[in-house]
Specification:
By secondary structure, this protein is α+β, with helices and mostly antiparallel strands. Helices cover about 35% and strands about 10% of the residues.
Length: about 325
């Protein structure tokens, strides 16, 4: 609250919240959101009044945080061996990519020192893939991942903050060993998972996460309480950038382009009903933001206001051009 003395408290504008509103905003925890003013509260209440929460919209979703480097230490090695699988870390993930950083080319001291930082991959759209520093016994991995029967998962960085450049950083990955710095989910319907990926990485969803996040761990409890558009809305046909198609087609066509250089992911789009779209990466991401905003019923002016709050991600000039 930027207060140095308790006596200054009564000089600050007050925000009133009823118990009913708290339950509406955070039905699982009843916690007060991290709002700074009444306009942020009004936004959250408007979203909550017009959309159900994630947990009720996607009831069949399976969440997980699978490999724990301490709890499973007896099955983990620091060198690759036959019968062991590489462990993915949160550092490898960014918006729409699982190829953001690597421990490749680093010395043993650099890789295993306290709070080691992975090296950013110069071109995430290139041919380089993350190199891990820990490996888990394949048999152990099969046992702890047995409740995730499908090939792909949505994964996001668990350790984050509302003051970061972006708070929610998510990607789609093959089901592979991921440590506690990554949380993941899986659904029966792959197309719905891709819709959720677009939703998670949108600035609208990210903005709500920022207003609801209290600590540094973006847990499934926070995700479950975020209002989201109804599943059936993705089948609505809209005109976007001169193309008449379903909202799902508009989203998937752009997600496909964002993963065109990742052989692990791009194959999943071969059987999907999408169209060709070519543009710069940031334009594609902004397009997805605009489509998600439509799903939420958010105006162009309000979307620009949200975009401007991400000062380390977008400049004012970019917001004017992209939105």
């Amino acid at each position: 609250m930027n207060l140095n003395q308790y006596t200054n408290f009564d000089k600050q504008p007050t925000i009133e919240l009823t118990y009913d509103e708290l339950h509406k905003l955070n039905p699982e925890t009843g916690m007060i959101p991290s709002i700074k003013n009444s306009s942020e509260l009004k936004f959250l209440l408007n979203m909550a009044n017009h959309h159900d929460i994630f947990d009720r919209v996607y009831e069949q979703c399976r969440f997980g945080r699978l490999v724990h480097l301490t709890n499973h230490s007896s099955a983990i090695k620091a060198e690759k061996e036959n019968g062991y699988l590489a462990i993915y870390e949160g550092k490898f993930i960014e918006l729409y990519t699982g190829k953001f950083a690597t421990f490749g080319g680093m010395t043993e001291t650099e890789k295993y020192k306290n709070k080691a930082t992975a090296k950013t991959i110069d071109n995430p759209q290139g041919t380089e893939y993350p190199e891990s520093r820990f490996y888990i016994k394949e048999e152990t991995w099969k046992n702890i991942s047995k409740n995730f029967p499908y090939e792909y998962v949505i994964a996001w960085r668990s350790l984050t903050a509302s003051t970061n450049r972006r708070t929610m950083l998510a990607t789609i990955l093959p089901l592979l060993p991921t440590c506690q710095s990554i949380q993941l989910l899986q659904m029966d319907d792959l197309k719905q998972m891709l819709h959720v990926l677009a939703l998670f990485n949108s600035i609208v969803f990210d903005y709500m996460v920022r207003l609801k996040m209290v600590g540094l761990d973006l847990t499934q409890t926070i995700i479950k309480q975020i209002p989201v558009p109804a599943i059936k809305k993705y089948d609505e046909v809209i005109l976007f950038n001169g193309k008449n198609a379903t909202i799902s087609q508009h989203l998937l066509s752009r997600i496909k382009m964002l993963y065109e250089d990742d052989y692990r992911i791009n194959k999943i789009f071969k059987t999907m009903d999408i169209y060709e779209v070519h543009d710069q990466r940031k334009v594609l991401i902004a397009d997805i933001d605009k489509i998600i905003a439509m799903l939420y019923g958010i105006s162009k002016q309000e979307l620009k206001k949200i975009a401007l709050s991400f000062t380390s991600f977008y400049t004012k000039e970019e917001v004017e051009v992209l939105y």
